[in-house]
Amino acid sequence: MSTFSRTPTRVERPEQCSEEEWALRCQLAECYHLVDYMGWTETIFNHISARLPGPAHHYLVNPFGLNYTEVTPLNLLKVDLEGHKLEPSPYDGNPAGFALHAAVHAAREDVQCIIHTHTTPISAVVQKRGGFDHNSFYGAQLYGRVGYHTFEGITLFDDEKSRMVASLGDKHILVLRNHGVAVAESSIAKAFFLLWTVQRAAEIQCAAGALGGEDVPLGADVQQKCADLTAMLIRDSGFAVKFFDAMVRKMHAQRGPGW
């Protein structure tokens, strides 16, 4: 959990909401705002989920129809693996998100947070047969962490769940070919940092591909070394938490005290 816990000043924790869930709601709302701040939104579409503690695999997700800037700790939906709301809300969820998020949350006990985006650079890379290369500073950090899933249309149907889980395997990045990506990590901060790395890798790959000349390839040993070192930093040093907290502070400083 982030060390920087910003609870909205005018909103109190509801009595029926545990402190642990409220902290998760506050951090997830901040994650939505950060994704908007970074320019990675797709209007009201796409989704970020955070699994709640406990054996039931319940998770929080955005109300469909709201901009990411309108997501708050209070209006986040609590749903089960079938997408049914567990608490009253005037909002519904996005049906296109339930199959993906429910499938991964049910299958991967190590995953707390899943972020799905399809920014222009990411969508361009995943449309290419080769997918992500690992020859840039950021691309190398993704080495061995990417699973690929063949596009089957909008993810609405239960029968695709097992195939998406199989495509992800034990990895943390699911490329939805011809579509976008979903990153899955053990915390919100780690998922956000991983998405940032994926986004940077895609941006650089697109820019390099537009230039003339031959790329300098990296050996598999160097790619693996980069991926292993990044994993160690995130696991052992709190690197992702520091990054997330710094980005939240930057966002609030630029957007003003109302955020």
UniProtKB/TrEMBL annotation:
One CC-aspect GO term: cytoskeleton
Gene3D superfamilies documented for this protein: Class II aldolase/adducin N-terminal domain
Protein family according to the UniProt entry: Belongs to the aldolase class II family.
Annotated GO MF terms: actin filament binding
The protein's name: Class II aldolase/adducin family protein
Domain Class II aldolase/adducin N-terminal: 26-206
A Pfam family: Aldolase_II
